[in-house]
Amino acid sequence: MIEQARQTLIQTFGFDQFRDPQQQVIETLLADGDALVVMPTGGGKSLCYQLPSMVREGTGIIVSPLIALMQDQVNALSLLGIKAGCLNSSLDFDELQRTEAALVNGELDMLYIAPERLLQQRTLNLLSRAKLALFAIDEAHCVSQWGHDFRPEYLQLGELAQRFPDVPRIALTATADARTRQEMSERLHLEGAKQFIKGFDRPNIRYRIAQKDGAKEQLLSFIRAEHSGDAGVVYCMSRKRVEDTASWLAQKGFNALPYHAGLPPELRNHNQHRFLTEEAVIMVATIAFGMGIDKPNVRFVAHLDLPKSIEAYYQETGRAGRDGLPANAWMVYGLQDVIFQRQMLESGQAADEQKQIERQKLEAMLGLCEITSCRRRALLSYFGEPDHPDCGNCDNCLEPAEVWDGTEVARKALSAVYRSGQQYGVTAVIEILRGEQTDRSRQRGHDQLSTWGIGRDLDKTTWRSVFRQLVARGLLRVTPDNFGSLYLAESCRALLKGEETIELRRDVRPAKRFTKSSSSKRPEFNLTHADQGLWEALRNCRRDIADEKDVPPYVIFHDSTLLEMVSLKPTSAIQLRRINGIGDRKLEAYGPAFLKVISDHLAEA
Ligand code: ADP
Ligand code: ZN
C-alpha cells in the first residue's frame, strides 16, 4: 500500500519523494496504527493524513479548529483532483445535506470538520453510517492546558477512541515541548500511538532581536530595506497598536491590513482573504491571527511587542518561510515590554500554580532576548535539542554581541532603588542616579540620598538598558500596579554583597545593527536581470490563473516551483513535469500556459 501512496505523491502532488518522517507515519496509518506527529511548521504534516485518506478505503475525517480556512483547503485539494468537503457552521442547509450525502455514499476522500460539530450527536450518527479511513486531529496541542492555545472542545475528542475503536487516529502539532506532548497523548487516548518527533530547526528563518528605539520607524526601515513587495505579518499586543501600525504603514504606501478579534468578522475574513490571495499584503495583527494560515511565501514575521513565551514566539515566527526559501523573524523590544509583561502576569487572575508556569515561560523568553550567543541554539535547546552548533543565521552569529562587566553599574542601580525606598519607577530612579534636578526630585528630597548622582557617567539610554537587563534577569522586580515601582528581588543579594559579578549586553543602536546584518536577500534578488523578467512573467501568469479560479496564487504553484522554472527553463511537458510541485493534474491544466511564458521569454532573449 505504501507504493500506492508513493505513486499518489508523485502523480497527484508532483513531489518526487517523501520527507522524513512522512513515509513511516503513512505506513503506520496504513497498517491500522495510531500516530502522534510533532513536526515544525512547513515540515509537511498535511500529507501524513492526506495520502492515507486517499489510499485507505473510506473517508479521512480531519478535525481542525480553523473554520475560516476549511473552504480554502477543500478548494486547493479539488484543484489536485481530490474529492474533499467540509462541515462547519458557515455552510447553508443545502450544502450541508449535499456534503453529508457524499460522505455516506463514500464519495469523499477527505472531510474537514470543526471539533464542536464533530461531537454533536447528529454528526456522530452520520459518521457511524459512513466508511471511515482515519481521524486526523490537527493542531492537537489545543487539547493541552499547559500549551497556549487551549480549546475546551478539544477535550472531548478523546471519546473518538471508544466510539470508533477500529478507525486509526493521527494527532498532529508543531508545538514541541514534552509536557504538551504528554497531555496530548493522555487526553486523546493516544498512549499506544507511535510517536514521530521531527527536529525543530527552521534553518531558512533568520532570527533577529534588537532594542526598541522608535519601533515603527525601525519596522519601516526593515521592511523597506529587505521586504518591499513581500508578504509578511507584524504582530502587536493590543488592538489599538494594530490599528495604528496598519494605518501608518498604509500611509507609507504598503498594502497593510489590520486583524484582531475586535473587528467585525466580515472585515476580518476579508482581510485574511486578501492576505492569502494577493502577493504583497502585510498583515498587522494580534495573536488572534495566524493559526492554520498555510500561505507558504510569508517572507517575514515582525514582532513589535514581546511574546509571552518561547512557544508563542516560535509558533508565530514559524509562519514565515514555509516554502523553505529565506525568511526573516524580526523583533524589537524594550524595557517597557519587560515591565508590561511582568505586570500583566502578576496582576492576572490565574491561580498561583498557573502563574508560576507563566513566570517560567516569560523568564525563558526574556532569556532568549538578552542572550549573547546563538539564538537558534537557545531556541532548539529549549525544545529539547541541545546539540546544535552555532547557526550562522541569527543576529548574534552574524554580528557577535558585545558584553561588558556591569557589576559596578548594577550595584549602583540596585542601591539607588533600595535607598529611595523601593517605591519609584525606572524613570525616577534614573533621575536619582544621574542627579537630575527636577521639581519632582527636589520635592521628594532625592538630592539628599547617598546615591544621588552616582551614575552621571552613563547616559539615560544606557541606564535603561541596564535596568531592562536587571528586570529581565529577575534581579529587580516591578509592582503590578500602575506605578511599576521597582523593588529588589531576593536573588540580587549576592551581587549587592560583592559575591557575584554580572555581564551585561552592550546594546548596539538598532540602526547600525540592522543595516549591517541585512544581507538576507529575497530570492528574486539573486536572479540575473534577464531571469528577473521571466520570474515576473511567470508570477503574472500564475496570478491570472489564480484570479480566474478564485484561489490564492500559491495554490496554483509555489514560489519555489516558479523559481525552479526560472532556473531550468523547461521547454516541454516532460521537462516541466520533473519540477517539484507539478503533478499530473496541474501539468495538464496549467503546463501549456507556463511553457508559453517560458518559450516567449527565450525567443525574446
Ligand atoms: P505543515 O502542515 O507541517 O506546516 P504542510 O503540510 O503545509 O506543512 O507542508 C509544507 C509545504 O511543504 C507545503 O507547501 C507542501 O506542499 C510541501 N511538502 C510537503 N511534503 C513534501 C514532499 N514530500 N516533497 C516536497 N514538498 C513537500
Ligand atoms: Zn545563530
Describe the structure.
The chain is built from 28 helices and 17 strands. With 605 residues, the chain is α/β, with parallel strands linked by helices. The protein has 4 domains: 2-197, P-loop containing nucleotide triphosphate hydrolases (Rossmann fold, 3-Layer(aba) Sandwich); 205-333, P-loop containing nucleotide triphosphate hydrolases (Rossmann fold); 403-505, Winged helix-like DNA-binding domain superfamily/Winged helix DNA-binding domain (Arc Repressor Mutant, subunit A, Orthogonal Bundle); 522-604, DNA polymerase, domain 1. The strands form 4 sheets. The chain has a 7-stranded parallel β-sheet, with helices on both faces. α2 runs parallel beside α3 and α14 (335-347) runs parallel beside α21 (460-472). The longest helix has 21 residues, at 529-549. The protein is globular. The relative contact order is 0.09. The model is unreliable at 511-521 (pLDDT under 50). The structure holds adenosine-5'-diphosphate and zinc ion. Zinc ion is lined by residues 374-376, 390-391, 394, 396-397.
Topology:
Layout: H1 2-13, H2 22-30, E1 35-38, H3 45-55, E2 59-63, H4 67-79, E3 84-87, H5 93-104, E4 110-113, H6 115-118, H7 121-128, E5 132-137, H8 160-163, E6 169-173, H9 178-187, E7 194-197, E8 205-211, H10 215-226, E9 231-235, H11 239-251, E10 255-259, H12 265-277, E11 281-285, E12 298-303, H13 310-317, E13 327-333, H14 335-347, H15 352-370, H16 375-382, H17 395-398, E14 403-405, H18 407-419, H19 426-434, H20 439-443, H21 460-472, E15 476-478, E16 486-488, H22 493-496, E17 503-505, H23 510-516, H24 529-549, H25 553-556, H26 559-568, H27 573-577, H28 584-604
Parallel strand pairs: 1-6, 1-7, 2-4, 2-5, 3-4, 5-6, 8-13, 9-11, 9-12, 10-11, 12-13
Antiparallel strand pairs: 14-17, 15-16
Helix pairs in contact: 1-3, 2-3, 14-15, 14-21, 18-19, 19-21, 24-26, 24-28
The chain binds adenosine-5'-diphosphate and zinc ion (ZN).
Zinc ion is lined by residues 374-376, 390-391, 394, 396-397.
